Amino acid sequence: MSTRQSAPRVLRRTVPFTGPIFHVDRETVRLPNGRIKAMDIVRHRGSVVLVPRPSRDRVILIRQYRQAIRRWIWELPAGSLEAGERPAAAARRECGEEIGLVPGRLRRLGLFYPTPGFCDERMIFFECTALGRPKTPLAGDEDEQITPRTVSIADAWKLVDRGQIIDMKTVLGLLLIGSGRASL
Fold it and tell me: Domain tally for the chain?
């Protein structure tokens, strides 16, 4: 059985929104069934998700306010790639900015698309170990109010159970480090 299908053909593309982190393409496409449909696609440079581990059984989370859901949450540190920035460099930069520590070692854990139904953002996950203070302090983004906290991996899973960790990138990051949790 063949799973190969033809892709929709783009007939027209406009850019109804451009912002500092992403832009939106509106594509009018002809679907394989012949129908024509307009689709909005969020175009994003990509991001890095950090799993900072000061020791084998501990992880550093951050608490910050997320305006889109209007609440404070605990999550793994993450951030967007700057134009032309390599993912490993972004991981080191974001780690320093968000938790005040830089990794001596980075291990790439994987690349995932969080919402491919409408966005092309690629999230690249890195385990960060051998954490140390940067030579010069790195300033965080002006709109971020971040509180880092080191917790045991078991306590991080308790935050998931209590609904205080609610974003998929954090849950996936915990699973990727082999936390021993069999299922959600």
Answer: 2
**Positions marked active-site:** 142
Task: Kindly state whether residues 28 and 100 are assigned to the same domain.
Answer: no
83-138: pLDDT as tens digits:
999 999 999 999 999 999 999 999 999 999 999 999 999 999 999 999 999 877 66
Q: State how far the Cα of 79 lies from the Cα of 43, in Å rounded to an integer.
A: 15
106: in domain: yes
Continuous H helices in the chain: 87-99, 153-161, 168-176
In 3D, which of 54, 176, 167 has the Cα closest to residue 110?
Answer: 176
> Are 98 and 162 contained in the same domain?
yes
Judged by DSSP in three states, 62 sits in strand
Angle made by CA atoms 174, 176, 178, in degrees to the nearest 5: 80
Same domain membership, residue 73 and residue 39: no
Place of tokens 């793994």: 76
Distance, CA of 151 to CA of 34 (rounded, Å)? 53
